[in-house]
Amino acid sequence: MQQISRAFSYLSQAFSLARSPGLRWYVMVPMAFNVLVFGVLYWLSATWIGGWISAVTAGWALDGGLSFLNGLIQFLANAAVVLVWILLLGVFASVFTLGVQLIAAPFMGFLAEKVDIQVTSRPMPDESIGAMIWRTFKREIRKTLYWLWRALLVLFVVVVLYFIPVVNVFASAVWFLWSGWLLGMQYIDYGADNRQVSFEEMLVRLKRKRWLVLTFGSLVMGLTMLPLVNLFIMPVAVIAGTLIWVKELSPEVMPEVV
């Protein structure tokens, strides 16, 4: 229970730190990037699909005794366009944050570095910006390789559970918790990577405090699923994940890892 309550506490602290003068610009830049990419992709996709529906249904008209249905047909065509905009908003809200993780990783690395220095007052390992960006990019590839085949295995389990009466109510919960673990790992790893702790050692440390990581990741997962909230939750989650790393999991506070 203590680990679960601390997960809520770290996320609350992150919201406060995100507004502090020292971190504000590091939060606003990736958030502006998210809004720009999200807005452009959403507008282009919805406009194209909505235009296609309008073009296909433009010639739909009934003659004779059924002409009274033309108003209903036009209403349904317009409703389909509106429905496309709404559905696409939901789809983008669900997958957008995961889609930009790889692109925004260097920005998140800078933010995690500033949080680490502000909290610990310890300098970061000396390296060039180019080396940091390349290291962060490779780390994201490594994390992708970690979760990809595991996600397929969990998906298989979820599909099996779905077809078992009574037990199938747990299928969605299994997938949600798995996604929460991945997000917890993702956001905590920025702090570990900046301190050049290997991915394998970081995983061992995370498993020592599973409930803290799982609760934190599940909270972020829930917020990520809320439209528009997902546009700014990423930098806040990076701050919270870095706080968890430096205060709970780093070698300075957890020196021995078996």
TrEMBL record:
GO biological process, one term: sulfate assimilation
Family matches, as InterPro entries: CysZ-like, CysZ/EI24
Localization of this protein: Membrane
Membrane topology: Multi-pass membrane protein
A Pfam family reported for this protein in Swiss-Prot or TrEMBL: EI24
Keywords on record: Amino-acid biosynthesis, Cell inner membrane, Cell membrane, Cysteine biosynthesis, Membrane, Sulfate transport, Transmembrane, Transmembrane helix, Transport
Listed GO MF terms: high-affinity sulfate:proton symporter activity
CC annotations in GO: plasma membrane
Main location: membrane
Residue spans crossing the bilayer: 79-104, 145-164, 170-190, 211-244
Matching PANTHER family: SULFATE TRANSPORTER CYSZ
Full protein name: Sulfate transporter CysZ
Species in which this protein is naturally found: Alloalcanivorax xenomutans
Encoding gene (name): cysZ
